Amino acid sequence: MSDSLGATEQLKVEGVTLSFGGVKALRDVSFSVKSGSISALIGPNGAGKTSMFNCISGFYQPSAGKILLDGQDICRMRPPGRAKLGMARSFQNIALFRGMTVLDNIKLGRHAHMRTNLLQAFIYAGAAAREENALRAEIEERIIDFLEIDHIRNKPVSVLPYGLQKRVELARALAMQPRILLLDEPVAGMNREETEDMARFILDVKEEWGVTILMVEHDMGLVMDISDHVTVLNFGEVIASGLPAEVQADPLVAEAYLGSGDPAALMRKLADEAAGETAA
């Protein structure tokens, strides 16, 4: 993948530090995400990836540093405000309303952008009805078709297999009309076929929808295959950043993952994992 995509820095993290009591989860973390790219934030368990995601999406407030979205510092902005600026997020642990239908879960993603007030929505007439009908048409004609989930749109989420629930969560995030999409472990728990489908959808979201993507993901094969840029955290600090091939060949990355600074061993491990998944 080319690292030259998207000349502008849509998201910029500058010197972010996050502390819980006396423990520093993040230490002076800096990286950027270029417009129109797929960027990955990776690292061993406990490296600080989810803490960084929570800072970017507004669930945690850093003790130091800045987070800029299109040049605007959003550190003190609450999550709904970030959503209105075009930021959407999926979660590692599926956060859907299990008793609601697929369609209703997806529609909730547009809440931050709805223009009608509570009274209009309650009466469900005039502007509220028109807005609701337009939203449903867009979801059914674009998002549901795009993610190939038309056959389940009226089913409750609770009856769906895990892989389809992850797809519904992506659909809800797309309903937010994001300019930048944060994906937290998008293929965690998926089999090989489900992972390949999700990889295809992520690439299409970038290419066809023009959405910038930042993802946290443990599947190193996926990361190396579809990412334009990779940033590696370990113990809350950035230890490497660059093209996937550059990161994969970095001794510090190999040491973080394997305990030894041998990039060739890391590459063999990735190849063995890919071969095992193919055989399965």
Number of helical runs?
A: 11
**Silhouette:** globular
- CATH H level, superfamily name of the largest domain: P-loop containing nucleotide triphosphate hydrolases
| Main beta sheet | 6 strands, mixed
The name of the CATH architecture of the largest domain is 3-Layer(aba) Sandwich
Succession of helices and strands: EEEHEEHEHHHHEHEHEEHHH
Strand order, largest beta sheet:
6-7-8-3-9-10
What is the average per-residue confidence, as pLDDT, rounded to a whole number? 84
Total domain count: 2
Concise account of the structure shown:
This protein is an alpha/beta fold.
Secondary structure topology:
Layout: E1 9-20, E2 23-34, E3 38-42, H1 49-57, E4 64-69, E5 72-73, H2 79-84, E6 87-89, H3 102-108, H4 118-123, H5 127-146, H6 162-175, E7 180-184, H7 192-209, E8 212-216, H8 220-226, E9 229-234, E10 237-242, H9 244-248, H10 251-258, H11 263-279
Keywords summarizing the entry:
Rossmann fold, 280 residues, 42% helix, disordered N terminus, 10 strands, 4-stranded antiparallel β-sheet, 6-stranded mixed β-sheet, 11 helices, alpha/beta
Can you walk through the features of this model?
The chain has two domains: 1-86 and 178-280, 3-Layer(aba) Sandwich (Rossmann fold); 97-176, no CATH class. It contains eleven helices and ten strands. The chain has helices at 49-57, 79-84, 102-108, 118-123, 127-146, 162-175, 192-209, 220-226, 244-248, 251-258, 263-279, and strands spanning 9-20, 23-34, 38-42, 64-69, 72-73, 87-89, 180-184, 212-216, 229-234, 237-242. The strands form two sheets. Strands 6-7-8-3-9-10 form a six-stranded mixed sheet, with helices on both faces. Helix 3 packs parallel to helix 6 (162-175). The longest helix is centred in the middle third of the chain and has 20 residues, at 127-146. It is globular, with a radius of gyration of 20 Å. The two termini are 27 Å apart.
